[in-house]
Every structure is written in structure tokens, then in C-alpha cells.
Amino acid sequence: MMNLLCPLICFGSAFPIQTTLSRLSDNLLSRLKFIQTVTRKRMVMKMKSSAFSTIVKIMSFTLILVIWKTLIDQQFDPVIDLIIILGGVITVVPISMFGRLILNKNPIVERVFWVNLFVHFSIMICLGASIIRAILTNVHWRGISIPFPRVISLLFLIICGGFVTITIFYLALRGLGAPFALIISSKYLVSDWLYTRLRNPMVLAIILFLESLGLFFQSAWFIIWVSFLVFPVWTFFLVCYEEKELEIRFGESYLVYKARTPIFLPFKGNFERLR
């Protein structure tokens, strides 16, 4: 009798276990399906967000080009030109400080895109307008003429222009992005080749190009404007805003790169203290 009851008892005790395992497996499968559904929705939302952000950037860049084109075609009163040339550069300072303030309040990657869009959009309009009007009207405020050979200054322009082009394309190819984050923000931290020696070779190349342009114009005031206004203000933007933005996006890897690489020259200057 006991021999007959033992299998029945074992079967009866095993049945609840099988039922429990079946329920657990069903719950596990339903949770996996839920996770897959949520993941898919997040991927779709991320793709839509990426497409939307790209469209916004392209539209912003197009608007910048339209504004620049208008500034090239228009003629302004000398006083207005002076306000644009000086004020456009100076405006970079409060814009950089405002952007840094926003990032400090909520330093997350998701916020960087919209802050970047505002800061870079505003700075490119202001700084670009200032440079455009300074180049177009340099004849009217040349000041003391510098007797520098035009042939040599033209050679400097070609070399510095090539330097600018190389640094821009290298940043775009290695970082898979574009300068000033206008079209596509750089996805990777570029820290090799020219960027091994300097953190901002592109900005340095642009400044040298503008200095060469001043020599070509033989304009003392143009060189003074670049050296004592454009260069310091642009450096302030890099140290005050852009370094913070890169720190948020790239984290520890950027902090390590920043610690070992100077901003412009092979030594760390006083601008490092502005942080």
C-alpha cells in the first residue's frame, strides 16, 4: 500500500512546484517583452529626437548664413560699424557666462544640446558680424600704416588659411562632428595629432589668420583689435563655457586630456585660472 502511495505523494508535491515554475517563466517572459517594448520605444524616440535636433541645427546654421550675407551686402554708418565691430566681440562675454550659469545649475548631457545651440548660435552671429564688418571696413580705420611687405603677408595668409582648413577637417573626421556643434556635435574627444600639443589648434589658427590679414591690410588698428579684443574674448569663451560643456559630455577622459594639454601654447598661461 505504501509503495502505491509514495508515487502519488511525490506527484502531488511536484505539481505545485511545476505550476510555480510555469508562472515564474510566464512572468519572466512578460517582463522581457515589456523591456523590449520600452527599449524599442526609447530607440524610436531617440531617433526622432536626433532627427529633430539635426533639423534645428541646419535651420540655425542657414539663418546665420543669411544674417552674414546681409551684413556683407549692407552699408552702415561708420558709428554703426564701430558698434558692431566692438560690441559684437564684447557680447561674447555675457553669452558665455550665461551659458556656463545654466550648465552649472543642471550639468547633464541632455541639457548640453539646447544650451550649446543657444550659445554657439548667438556667438557666431555676434563674433561673425564683428569680423565681417571689420574686414569690409578696415580701410576706414586703418590707423598707423604698417609697412609690411604684401607678398610675405599673403604667404602668411595662405599658410594660416591652410592651417585653419586642416584643423577643421581633422576635427570633423576624427570627432565625427563639426566645429561649434552647428551641424553635428563631435561624438568623440579628439586628442591626437595637433590636439596632442594644444587643446584649441583651430582657434589659434583662426587668430593667426586674422593677424596675417591685419598685416596684409597694413593696419595697426586691425592687429590691435585682434590681439587685445578678439583673442582674449575668444579665450574667455573657451575657458568659461566650452571647457565646461566638454567636461559634461566627455567626463573623466576630457579632464585627463585637459590636465596634460595646454590651451594654446606649450605652457599653461593665466587663462587657466579663469575656471
Notes on the structure:
The chain is mainly alpha-helical. The chain has a single domain (51-274), classed as Four Helix Bundle (Hemerythrin (Met), subunit A) (Up-down Bundle), CATH 1.20.120. The chain is built from nine helices and no strands. It has helices at 2-73, 78-90, 92-105, 109-136, 150-175, 194-197, 201-217, 220-250, 252-260. The longest helix is centred in the first third of the chain and has 72 residues, at 2-73. The N and C termini lie far apart (88 Å).
SSE pattern: HHHHHHHHH
How many domains? 1
Relative strand content? under 5%
Helical percentage:
over 70%
- How many helices? The count is 9
CATH architecture classification: Up-down Bundle
CATH topology: Four Helix Bundle (Hemerythrin (Met), subunit A)
Could you tell me the radius of gyration in angstroms? 29 Å
How many angstroms separate the termini? 88 Å
Pairing-aware structural class of the strands and helices?
A: mainly alpha
Low-confidence sequence ranges: 43-48, 269-275
Mean pLDDT across the residues is: 80
CATH class: Mainly Alpha
Task: Describe the sheet with the most strands.
Answer: none
